[in-house]
Amino acid sequence: MDLNQRLKDRVVIVTGGASGIGAACARRYAAEGARVVIGDLDADGAAAVAGPIGGIAMRCDHTDAAQCQALVALALQHFGAVDVLHNNAGTGWTGRFGDMPGEAARRLLEVGVMGPILMTQAALPALRRSAVPSGGALLFTASGLGLHGRPMIAAYAAAKHAVLGLMRSLALELGPEGLRVNAVCPGIVDTPLVRATTGGWGPTEQVLENFRLGTPLRRLVQAEDVAASAAFLISDDARNLTGTALLVDGGAHEA
Ligand SMILES: NC(=O)c1ccc[n+]([C@@H]2O[C@H](COP(=O)([O-])OP(=O)(O)OC[C@H]3O[C@@H](n4cnc5c(N)ncnc54)[C@H](O)[C@@H]3O)[C@@H](O)[C@H]2O)c1
Q1: 160-197 tens-digit pLDDT
Q2: Is the beta carbon of 19 within 6 A of some atom in ligand 1?
Q3: N or C: which end of the chain has fewer CB within 10 A?
Q4: What is the pLDDT of residue 253?
Q5: pLDDT the model gives residue 37
């Protein structure tokens, strides 16, 4: 087996693939031989990532069931299958819980929880038909904040705890059908999301430096580090892993 081509010819849908962690995952999957389909609110950004890696992209708001169906239809039309769904798109908010506008909380949960639910429902029939011998795979980008709490980010932590509840329950429900369901749980990664939404914790550079100092390894997690773990989880190297929440946080959870 060519270990550099673990995902050869597998059709992988990545939501939120226009930027940050999702873009790094899309590039990594393609480098390992996958055919990548990106759905993102940012159509131009998604096309800019998909083009150079031989993938395809479309504007897709994963909180809208019809748009999720359209993304799956695009994958089937161009590549004839869906072997993996990586639910990655998300958004954030930091600040004092009592100050969070209700609408911001509603949107955060809509994007963070309803999006993955609707996208998964849309992709399930195709995932069940995957011809990959080890079966179709679902992957969620959760967070270290799906496993523990932190001040000034309660609604986001609630959304990520929900994602892990979804992941674990689907692993049990879909396992007998041969589908694997896992999550990657990054620590803080310097992405546009972090720069736009961690102001409630302080200036971004300070937030990143504090996090780095809080890791036993004293180094920040890169989007490419998350992508390497994600590629493992959707590959046959993880064929006996399901219901796993894999932390990629430099050991910060132990500190
Ligand atoms: N950056 C971090 O520190 C970090 C840590 C843990 C988990 N995460 C999670 O990683 C995922 C990716 O985050 P990122 O940091 O790469 O952010 P990012 O902002 O760089 O990328 C997120 C992408 O999701 C897209 N998106 C947002 N709402 C969408 C919607 N409704 N439908 C479709 N696409 C939508 C955005 O347009 C963007 O391209 C998120 O789920 C986030 O919660 C990030």
Answers
A1: 999 999 999 999 999 999 999 999 999 999 999 999 99
A2: yes
A3: N
A4: 81
A5: 99
Pocket test for ligand 1, best of 21, 72, 197 (most atoms within 8 A of CB): 21
Domain extent, residue 165, equals 3-190+222-248
Please tell me the distance between residue 1's alpha carbon and the centre of ligand 1 in angstroms: 33
Q: Is residue 207 part of a domain?
A: no
State the pLDDT at residue 245. Answer: 98
Q: Is 35 in contact with 9 (CB distance < 8 Å)?
A: yes
Distance between CA atoms of residues 199 and 241, nearest Å: 36
Does residue 42 line the site of ligand 1, with CB under 6 A?
yes
Grouping H, G, I as helix, E, B as strand and the rest as coil, residue 99 is helix
| Domain-embedded: residue 201 | no
In the chain, the number of structural domains is 1
How far the first Cα of the chain sits from its last, in Å, is 39
**Active site residues per annotation:** 143, 156, 160
pTM over the 0.90 mark = yes
Q: Is the pLDDT of residue 3 over 80?
A: no
208: in domain: no
Beta strands in the chain (DSSP E): 11-15, 35-40, 56-59, 84-87, 137-141, 180-186, 245-248
